[in-house]
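PROTEIN DESIGN WORKSHEET
SECTION A - STRUCTURE
LENGTH: 200
TOKENS:
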């Protein structure tokens, strides 16, 4: 098990990283504007589940496979970008007397599934873990896989807390008159950002 000072140092690094807005934050904000805080928190939980999947994959060596295969990385990355753009187009599509949103508020379960897909469509999470975790894994602290799982769990917990703050804040802004347009633009911006970042 990692030493206490290792966990503290890793926690500070993780907190600094999650403070930078990324795909999960933007997804949660869009979800909160569309469906309220409860659904947005569920979406944040979906993102956290996706991140945990990558943590487990990192521990099992999946990240090394993704990093060594440009084709696999490209397929996962662009599939995620396409999905985000599809969400944006769907949010901007006119509805039938539904007020400012293009579709009814989604259930927490539906938001959870979407959050899971958004996070799994961001393979750079796995590559980030592959680059970060070795800096905090020490041979004398036990099995490397166990250390990765513990560090990954801490990272995901910090990220979930951050996303939940975004969820509550965006849910309170849900009454904003132009929320349908905001939701659509957030999704499209996120999809475009994912597409462009994949080409660099």
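SECTION B - SEQUENCE
RESIDUE ASSIGNMENT:
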């Amino acid at each position: 098990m990692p030493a206490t000072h290792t966990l503290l140092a890793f926690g500070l690094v993780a907190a600094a990283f999650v403070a930078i807005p990324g795909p999960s934050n933007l997804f949660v904000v869009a979800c909160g504007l569309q469906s309220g805080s409860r659904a947005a928190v569920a979406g944040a939980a979906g993102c956290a589940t996706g991140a945990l999947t990558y943590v487990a994959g990192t521990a099992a060596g999946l990240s090394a496979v993704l990093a060594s295969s440009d084709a696999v990385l490209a397929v996962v990355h662009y599939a995620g970008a396409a999905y985000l753009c599809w969400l944006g187009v769907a949010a901007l599509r006119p509805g039938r007397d539904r007020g400012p949103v293009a579709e009814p508020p989604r259930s927490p379960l539906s938001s959870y599934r979407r959050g899971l897909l958004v996070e799994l469509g961001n393979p750079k999470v796995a590559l980030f873990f592959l680059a970060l975790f070795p800096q905090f894994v020490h041979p004398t602290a036990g099995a490397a896989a166990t250390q990765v799982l513990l560090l990954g769990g801490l990272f995901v917990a910090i990220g979930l807390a951050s996303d939940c703050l975004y969820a509550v804040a965006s849910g309170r802004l849900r009454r904003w008159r132009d929320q349908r347009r905001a939701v659509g633009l957030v999704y499209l911006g996120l999809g475009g950002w994912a597409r462009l970042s994949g080409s660099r």
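SECTION C - NOTES
Residues 4-15+25-198 form one domain.
The chain has nine helices and no strands.
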